[in-house]
Each structure stands twice: as structure tokens, then as C-alpha cells.
């Protein structure tokens, strides 16, 4: 559930308004030349194409263009749901000569995979201009001359303009703090739905530039001490991330799960979403906990098991955003430790995902 | 979608009343000794357990029993949907030392897989007695002394009583015709949701003994010239299969699809549901047809693609039973040939699946 290009999230509530499902005709650069080069170099007979949900509709046209540029190649569109670079269609990857993953930056480079990031052509600066009202004043009347520190983050779609955004803020008197996160993040300043290590910077304010609230809400949950301002050039709106509703839901789920006698512990089989040791440790220490393996973690699939509560060691966003849709409490690994009494309630924090695979 | 033990089908209409979702406490023999022997022989550290949908709820108790009989073994429950022996959780199979598949008879034997069939303990004979009213009279007043021919079929759950059923009918004066189907079927007289080769017998009447209408409706669609009587000992009812509603739906879908300009051709990646050549041939001959690969073929997944119609080369029952739930016409490969004008409308027949993998 990370930086989808045009990807729709399946959540109710705030996150539906991510602007990711906008249908206005953005044009993307599918980097067909790079794909055709790889086909020719490898003498490929089969090519797999994987798009995030919101861009699957573009798949046939991209396949058409590629057919015209190649000969005797069979193109296969992945029909598996896709929510991030953590979510490669490994079946298709193994069975095609060239495999192209669109819309996400690489989580892990591989000769087998061509990543096409799909940079947005939307202009971020008008909304950044508007966001200044939420940032500290660079030239206060009673100023000490120090420039105010502001963190800057964005998603894969806007990475190509990140240096310009930094310059733009610096020119307006800010001390812009940025960093690259851990291995899971390709670029400096990049955030994923499950990883905000790029916002581990010394600044009380963070400006998020990008479409929707999915990423900045995660960022604000991970860094509750920071004010997170959203400059959204896709929906043309500036807001401040408010996590109150989500935090209430988390506490409610933890409280409900405190009565659970039996636990289903979900190990996600998606290539970049597996935390085997975490899952294994829970089961080793709790005789009423049982391991369940699956790729898509959905309410339907878990309803068939008669457990009182679940722990999801896969994508944290399934838990925080889709959690209320499950028939039983669904917790993150950290929340589970609270529910069974191993940790105090005050230790509740956002679940993040580190490393690759 | 084949012989689920207790599996619920997801279809609307007649097929919901399959009796497969009954919650009365049937007891099954999980053959724990056979599993424990395999664990010990192989020194297994991990064991995967896969149940059909309706029996997933029993998984934790089976895991508990196995934990008591073994030491230092981690048991993993498959959370993937499962509708048949065609639908093995290959991820779990590859990553566990012993893999147990419950509720279906083997489609293909393998050292890696322990199949536990789960025979029903329900008594079929009272309903068979009642079904005699629908079968030809063995002793008509104007008889020629010849015994009337009746085919007999059942599902994996009742295979253990199949010889007794044959005897029972023979004793009542019938010439019972049975056969084993092709490689896809383990036992003589066994049917799957996608394969009725065991009913290719010289008899105008076929008696189906088993729960629900899922299998006998498929059988009646595959053999429209035969009268198919259903002796259902799970729901305690005798009926005659009536395919009219389904056939109307099939013709309606084919007619709607005749206007389609673009086609999505689904290749199913489940181990026993792939028809690669069929899918590949369609795409090779129609430049407006595009290959899509996926495991679960669902309306949600196909909605993201902008095609006018779909061809499903995977499980035929998704097409015939769930077809109306898709937003665009969903056809079998044979129906596709009619819709694009390669074959006459009269050639419409039930789609079946042969061989293993």
C-alpha cells in the first residue's frame, strides 16, 4: 500500500480522499525505449507488465505500443492486486523473460526487474506557496535571524522535482532538512506508506508534497511530535495531518483484543511484506496463537478462521487503515504486545516496515 | 471450485444451496497418524496445513492435536482460498517440510503432498431409496426382462461408500454403469466441478449421490441428453438437475459479448487451473485480445481493466456460476469462439477441464 501512481486505496474514511483515483488525463512516461532495449538484448519471448491498481486500465494501451515496437513477443498483464514495490508479482516475474514494474521506485534492484517510476507532471509549487501559511515564519518581527527548520518529504511520483522543491523552500528562507531513509527507500526525501525514516530529521515541522492523505497520515502517526503539513498538488488543497480518528481506532482495537483467547498471526507471503521472525516469535511464546500464511490479507479470508483476534505482521497499512473492516480486532505486532500485557498502553506507536527482503 | 468438503461456494442462485456450508457437527478423520509419521520420517520442522473454505475453522484444533503429537514443529495454516485439489497453496508447499492438503482427493500424487480426503460419515441410502421414484422402473409390467442402465457418480467425500452404492443399486435390479474419468479424477465414479468424464457412460439416467447441486448441475450441463437425479444425503432431499437458468445466462453472456471490441483473456496461475495454450492461441489470433495473469479470478480484480469482455481459461465454474457478478460478459473459451463468429451458436456446451499439470 505504498506510493501508488494513481492507485486507489481500499480504506473507508479520510483515506478515500487520496486523490489517487482521479481520472483526469495525466500523461505518464512509460519509458518504452528502455523496455524495448531489454527485450532485444535478452531476445525475450515473453514480457510481464505489472501496474498499480489505478493504472491497470492503461495496461492494454502500453501493451499495444510495445507490440508495435517489437516482434513475436507475448505481453502478459498482471491481474494481481499491487500496492507497492513490496508487492511484485513473483509468479509473473519468474515466468517471463522481461518483467516491468510500473509506478513504484525500486525497493531492491534486480537484473530481472525493470522499474518504471512514472513521474507526475503536475506542478507542485502553487500548493507549496499556499502551504507557507502553515509553516513557521522565516522572518518573524522578533526574529533571531535563524532560519526555521522544515523537513521535506514526497513520494516516488514527485521525486524528479525534489531538488527544485528544496531550492524553492531555501530561497524563501527555510533551513530545509532532508535525509534518505533506510534500504527500503530509494531516494532522499522519499516516504512509503510503511516507512517514514526519511522524516527522522531535527525539525518540528515537516512539509509533505504529494497527492492524498495516505502518506502524511502515516507520517504523522509515526512522528506524533511533528506538525505535518500537506501540500497536495493533485487535489489542489493544503491541510494539516490529523491522526486523532486513527489513534482512537487503534486504542479501541487494542482494548477489544485484550479479551481474546485465541490469536491468528498473519504472515504475509508478498515478497516485500514478510516478517517471519516477528510472526514466529509470537507463536513460540503464546500457545493460543496460530500462524496463517496468505498474500492478500482481507476480511473475507480471515472470516473463515474462528480466532478471537488477529496480528498482522505484513503491511502495516492493512491494519491501521482497513482494520475496522475485519470482523475481529486486527493489531500490529507492537499493539499485540500491549494487548497481551507484555508492554504498557503508553508504548503504542505506528507500525513501520524496514529493510527489503 | 471442485469437491469441497464443507466448502461454501460464492455463487448466487441455486448453487448457494449446496448444503456445503452446513454447520452440524460432522466428524472427520484427519488421519493425524499419517501426518505424524511423515513429520518423523522427514525430521520436519515446518508443516503446512491447507483446508477448503468450509473447514478452515477446524484448522486450529487440528494444529493443536498435531502439536501434542509432535515436538518442535511449527504448523502453518494456509490462509489462501481453496476450492479443490487444483488449488494447492504452492507457496506454503515449497516452504514447508511436510504439506497436508485436506478435503480433496489427489489430482496428482507427489512426495511433497499428503492428501487427506475427509470421508463423510453421512448415510446415503435413505435418499437413494427415495431417488428410486426418479429412476426407470427395474420391473415394468410390459418389461423385456432387461435391467435398466443407470450411471452412478459421487464426490470425493463419499468415495469410501461407492462400492456399496453400486451393490445397493444392482440388488434393486439396475445395470449400474460406472467408469473412471481421465487423469484429473482419482476414483471410479468420481466427479469434479470441472470434469464429468466419469459420466461418459452408455445410460440415459445418471444418479448423483452427494451434497448440494454444484456438481450435478455441472454434470447436467456437460451431458444435456441425460436425466440427472440428485440423491442428497446432506440436505436430505431428492431432486432432478435443472440447468435452464444457467443455460439462459450463458446464451445471454455470449450475445452481450458479440459487441465486444477488446478482450481480456484470463490465464489462471493456480497449479491445476492453467490452460496456457488455449489462452495463448486466442491472443495470437485476435489483436484486440490481451493476456491477464492472476490466481483468484474475481470481479474486483477485473474491474480495473477497461476491457469490453473477458475469456476465462481457468476454472470453468467461475464463468458459469459467478459469471453474472462480473461487470462485463465473462465467457468460456468455447463461448468466446461463438461470440467472435468462429463457431455457430449451436456449438455452445459446458466447459470442462482435463488432465492435471
Automatic annotation (TrEMBL), chains A, B:
Pathway: Protein modification; peptidyl-diphthamide biosynthesis. GO terms for molecular function: 2-(3-amino-3-carboxypropyl)histidine synthase activity; 4 iron, 4 sulfur cluster binding; metal ion binding. The keyword tRNA processing does not apply. The keyword Transferase applies. Its cofactor is [4Fe-4S] cluster. Keywords: 4Fe-4S, Iron, Iron-sulfur, Metal-binding, S-adenosyl-L-methionine, Transferase. Belongs to the DPH1/DPH2 family. Its EC number is 2.5.1.108. InterPro entries: DPH1/DPH2 (IPR016435), DPH1/DPH2_1 (IPR042263), DPH1/DPH2_2 (IPR042264), DPH1/DPH2_3 (IPR042265), DPH1/DPH2_euk_archaea (IPR035435), Dph2_arc (IPR022428). GO terms for biological process: protein histidyl modification to diphthamide. This is 2-(3-amino-3-carboxypropyl)histidine synthase. Catalyzes the first step of diphthamide biosynthesis, i.e. the transfer of the 3-amino-3-carboxypropyl group from S-adenosyl-L-methionine (SAM) to the C2 position of the imidazole ring of the target histidine residue in translation elongation factor 2 (EF-2). It catalyses: L-histidyl-[translation elongation factor 2] + S-adenosyl-L-methionine = 2-[(3S)-amino-3-carboxypropyl]-L-histidyl-[translation elongation factor 2] + S-methyl-5'-thioadenosine + H(+).
